[in-house]
């Protein structure tokens, strides 16, 4: 049991570190490109470019730390964001794009009737996205309310301890 628990934590932490590094790099890169667009520091290895790049990476890591540990309900906020956006980007848009493309490029309502099975699948895909969005919002908001009511929400920078 201990081996399974340790290997699970190892796999989870390594994936979280890689994902965090990717998001941190992306945020720092967006700021870096906006700051140095049109200058030689953007593409050449200059001392000024490297100093700013290092500073931006440190600052974005610091901002991530402050958000993750300073906001006691950050995990719940991530749940709200995921239910609002991930459900639509994975389910809702896929179904909507298929319906739109079939309608606009294949012959209108007649094309949707000819492809009745795929039309039904994509309507159900949009319905699944709607259900996940509404259900996820309900569960996340209810979780916040229950966490505050039970005293489970800790103080800022308490790392989850009440």
From TrEMBL:
Highest taxon of the lineage: Eukaryota
Spans through the membrane: 47-67, 73-99, 120-148
Keywords: Membrane, Transmembrane, Transmembrane helix
UniProt name for this protein: Amino acid transporter transmembrane domain-containing protein
């Amino acid at each position: 049991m201990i081996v399974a628990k340790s290997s699970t934590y190892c796999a989870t932490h390594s994936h979280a570190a890689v994902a965090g590094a990717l998001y941190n790099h992306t945020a720092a890169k967006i700021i870096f490109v906006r700051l140095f667009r049109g200058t030689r520091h953007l593409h050449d290895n200059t001392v000024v470019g490297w100093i700013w790049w290092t500073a931006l990476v440190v600052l974005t890591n610091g901002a991530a730390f402050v958000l993750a540990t300073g906001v006691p309900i950050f995990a719940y906020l991530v749940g709200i964001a995921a239910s609002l956006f991930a459900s639509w980007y994975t389910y809702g848009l896929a179904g909507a794009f298929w319906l739109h493309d079939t309608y606009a490029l294949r012959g209108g309502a007649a094309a949707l009737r000819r492809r009745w099975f795929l039309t039904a699948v994509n309507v159900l895909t949009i319905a699944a996205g709607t259900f996940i969005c509404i259900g996820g919002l309900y569960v996340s908001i209810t979780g916040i309310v229950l966490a505050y009511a039970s005293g489970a929400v800790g103080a800022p920078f308490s790392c989850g301890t009440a």
